[in-house]
Automatic annotation (TrEMBL):
This is GNAT family acetyltransferase. One of its GO terms (molecular function) is acyltransferase activity, transferring groups other than amino-acyl groups. SUPFAM superfamilies: Acyl-CoA N-acyltransferases (Nat). Keywords: Transferase. It comes from Romboutsia weinsteinii.
Length: 173
């Protein structure tokens, strides 16, 4: 039984999302899968971009259509965010992948990331994505385990300077 549900952002989550953002900034943490929440000055600015990026017709320049979800726990708390890119461009094929995600520091090591990714893969099927590319930094062992626990098979590693990106594929077909 799932402890989480994936929910589309809406204005009712404004305060919780801004708290989520604050926590990541205070912890100097990477905020993957949040559709640019870290860099948005206001919730309204971020929410408008989120809505624009849902569709091919309105996606912002340089981006691909994507759906961002909040991972909400049984007690109603945002424990993470996960972003599904509907297709890949050259950059995403190389190092970004179809899915990005993050979990609050205080909610890590509870299996939430694995559960979030499993739920997101079900959404990928609905979007018609049969093969999902997910990447992570080689040093992010927890993320690699999350991907592997959801059926990820490593294809290769991409070296860029001192960063090594691992590329995993999950077959949903």
């Amino acid at each position: 039984m799932s402890r989480l549900r994936l929910v589309l952002p809406s204005p009712k989550f404004k305060d919780d999302l801004m708290d989520y953002k604050r926590e990541f900034i205070e912890n100097r943490d990477s905020m993957d899968g949040s559709a640019g929440l870290r860099d948005s000055k206001t919730f309204e600015e971020w929410y408008k971009a989120f809505l624009d990026n849902l569709k091919e017709e309105t996606v912002r320049d340089g981006l691909v259509p994507a759906t961002t979800y909040l991972a909400i726990s049984d007690d109603g708390k945002i424990v993470g965010m996960i972003d599904i890119r509907h297709r890949l461009n050259d950059y995403l094929l190389r190092v970004g992948g179809h899915i990005g995600y993050s979990t609050r520091k205080c909610e890590r090591k509870k299996g939430y990331a694995t559960e979030m990714l499993g739920l997101a893969l079900k959404e990928c099927i609905k979007l018609g994505i049969k093969e999902v590319l997910i990447t992570c930094d080689k040093n992010n062992i927890a993320s690699a385990k999350t991907i592997i626990n959801n059926g990820g098979k490593m294809e290769n590693e991409i070296y860029e300077g001192d960063r090594i990106t691992q590329r995993y594929w999950i077959d949903l077909g």
